[in-house]
Amino acid sequence: MTDDDHEQFLEAGRMTLWEHIAELRTRLVRCCIAIALGMVIGWIMYLPLLDFLKAPLKDLAIADKDGVLQNVGETFYAVDPLETFATRIKISAYCGIVLAMPVLLWQIWRFVTPGLYPKEKRYAIPFVVSALALFAFGAFIAYVTLTPALNFLINVGGGEVTPIYSVDNYVTLIAYMMLAFGAGFEFPVLLVALQMVGVLTPRKLLGWWRQAVVVIAIVAAVITPSADPISMAALAIPMFLFYLIAMVIGFVVTRRRRKKEARAAA
């Protein structure tokens, strides 16, 4: 079923439960194909991607007067014969998800759009673009935060502990960090969308700001893989700022909507 057929069926009120399920299956298949194609690219670009992910670790490597790296080494270790293969699969999968993100967001929007009013459908492009930009910004913050986070984790163990990282553990940590921050930075998109459909109001968000601080702090602590205070603060502070920005956007949208309604009533 095409996108136009989906909308025509829904507008005519003739879309059954099984047709909704079939439509969902079509969207999921398209998402899986996009991820698979992205994984192929990730598999091919494995070595440059691994070198890119290793950069925060290299920043921690300090050479002494004899040229020996102190604090942490640049070399990864594999403690299992299958670890390198599994790592390449993981990097390919993460790359596939990132490259397929525009398709994933678009498919989600197209599945929801037919249930919206025509005036609400015009937000499709801003929704996808803002979601992509925020996800990329969150992943970038996680990437630049990893060096001080690793430094904290190394120093907290004391000088008697020499860190030796396996490639799988390190890649999993940095990938989860970037995905967690990217997902957390989608927070304002969700809040704005809920305000636009009437589930939330700006005044409710304003009244809940104290509870929001607590909830955001808990969420940041839960979804931050490293659980260090630097990463938690780097995620929690922007999320609360996004909460305030989403509330301001809600006030602006509500005010414009009331003005239009007043003009229409006059």
Key features of this structure:
mainly alpha, two-stranded antiparallel sheet, 12 helices, 2% strand, flat
Task: Tell me what you see in this structure.
- It is built from 12 helices and 2 strands; from the N terminus they run αααββααααααααα.
- It is mostly helical and 266 residues long.
- Strands 1-2 form a two-stranded antiparallel sheet.
- α11 crosses α12 (229-265).
- The longest helix is centred in the last third of the chain and has 37 residues, at 229-265.
- The two termini are 43 Å apart.
- The relative contact order is 0.10.
- The model is unreliable at 8-13 and 63-69 (pLDDT under 50).
Number of helices: 12
Q: What order do the SSEs take from the amino end to the carboxyl end, as H and E?
A: HHHEEHHHHHHHHH
Class based on secondary structure composition and strand pairing:
mainly alpha
**Largest beta sheet: what is the strand line-up?**
1-2
Distance between the termini: 43 Å
Poorly predicted tracts of residues: 8-13, 63-69
Q: Helical amount among residues, as a percent range?
A: over 70%
- Nearest-integer average pLDDT: 79
Largest sheet: 2 strands, antiparallel
By oligomeric state, this entry counts as single chain
Indicate the overall shape: flat
Q: Strand fraction band?
A: under 5%
Count the E strands. Answer: 2
Radius of gyration: 23 Å
Write the layout of secondary structure elements.
Blueprint: H1 3-11, H2 17-44, H3 46-60, E1 62-63, E2 69-70, H4 83-99, H5 101-112, H6 118-121, H7 124-156, H8 167-184, H9 187-196, H10 202-207, H11 209-223, H12 229-265
Antiparallel strand pairs: 1-2
Helix pairs in contact: 2-4, 2-5, 3-7, 4-8, 5-7, 7-8, 7-12, 9-12, 11-12
